Description:
Layout: E1 13-18, E2 24-28, E3 34-36, H1 46-57, H2 62-69, H3 73-85, H4 89-97
Antiparallel strand pairs: 1-2, 2-3
Bound molecules: zinc ion.
Amino acid sequence: MKICCPECGSTKNKKNGHIHNGKQNHYCKSCGRQFIEDAERKLISVEEREQIRKLLLERIPLRGICRVMGVSLRWLLGFMVSGYEQLPGPVLANTRMT
Ligand SMILES: [Zn+2]
């Protein structure tokens, strides 16, 4: 079974030991991201990312977005960090100031 990197979607990854609770850790050779197969097995498409971004702007509770989109809270938090960095300047400024 091929495992996709949750960050870049690459299947060029290798096993990278186990984390504290025994889950298999993986290391992406393409972007260098480490990820856990179980928690982030779902690859989020660009369309889904865009939809999640809109939901975030609507101030819907994070756990609600997780339920609707089927993503983990951990993924969502990571997405918020990486996603907002990609937004245009003015939007980022508004987000930080409110
Ligand atoms: Zn990757």
